[in-house]
Amino acid sequence: MYLVIFRLAPGEYDAEFHELNDAIQAAAEDTEGYLGKRTWHAPDSEEVLVVYYWVSLDALESFGADADHKRAKQRWTEWYDAYEVTVTEVVETYGSEFGDDASPFA
Question: How many Å apart are CA 10 and CA 68, to the nearest integer?
C-alpha cells in the first residue's frame, strides 16, 4: 500500500477551486486501486493534512495522469499559501481498533 500525504496551508478558495477539487476527488475514486482518504486539521493553525491511500504505485501514477489533477497542480499558487506532498510505501501497520467508521477503506 502507498500513502500520499498532502500537507497544505490554505489560501483563498473560489468556485473554480471547489469544482476542480470535486472533479479530482471523483477521478481518484474512479481510479482502480484507490482505497480512500483521511483529513486532519491542525488545532493551532490552518494547516491541513490529507492522506490518500492507494493499493499500488501504478494506481497512484494512473491517477496522476488525470487532466484535472495536472491542471490543479499547475495552479496551486492561486489557492494555497504552501503545500508539500510526500509519497511513501507502507511496510507494516498495527494497533488497536478505532471503530467501524475510522477506516479510510469503509
Answer: 19
DSSP at 55: S
Mean pLDDT over 67-75 rounds to: 82
pLDDT score recorded for residue 53: 94
Continuous H helices in the chain: 15-30, 57-64, 67-74
Phi, psi dihedrals of residue 62, rounded to the nearest 5°: -60, -45
DSSP assignment of 40-52, as one string? EE-TTSS-EEEEE
CATH label of the domain that carries residue 26: 3.30.70.100
- How far is Cα of residue 61 from the mean position of the Cα atoms in its chain? 13
* pTM of the entire predicted model: 0.81
